[in-house]
Amino acid sequence: MHPDQAVGDMVDYALALRKPFACVPCCVYWKEFPRRKRGDGKMVRTYEDLVEWLKAKDPNIQEDVLDFEGKNRVLWWRPPELSR
């Protein structure tokens, strides 16, 4: 899924409902989301910041790289109870 501005809400929703997800974060939209903060309190302003901010939502969020150019980092999560 390529969620654009909804990426944070999509991840939060999936985690809250314990639903597996996969997403390819793309655009940061840092001006639209001034409340997105990194662990050090600074704003999420870069693509790397966005990926790390999303991964910090749950220690079990995984990252893989898809075999194409461009924004190719996929973040995914599966509830531990489904991983058995």
Query: Helical region count?
Result: 2
Can you give the mean pLDDT?
A: 93
Strand order of the largest sheet: 1-3-2
Q: What share of the residues lie within helices?
A: 10-25%
Largest sheet at a glance? 3 strands, antiparallel
Low-confidence stretches: none
What's the count of strands? 3
Overall morphology: globular
End-to-end C-alpha gap: 25 Å
Structural class: alpha+beta
Radius of gyration: 13 Å
H-E order: HEHEE
Tell me the strand percentage band.
5-15%
Characteristic terms for this protein:
three-stranded antiparallel sheet; 3 strands; alpha+beta; 84 residues
Give an overview of the whole structure.
- It is a single chain.
- This protein is α+β, with helices and mostly antiparallel strands and 84 residues long.
- The protein contains 2 helices and 3 strands, in the order H-E-H-E-E.
- The protein has a 3-stranded antiparallel beta sheet with strand order 1-3-2, with helices on one face.
- A hairpin with a 7-residue loop joins strand 2 and strand 3.
- It is globular, with a radius of gyration of 13 Å.
- The two termini are 25 Å apart.
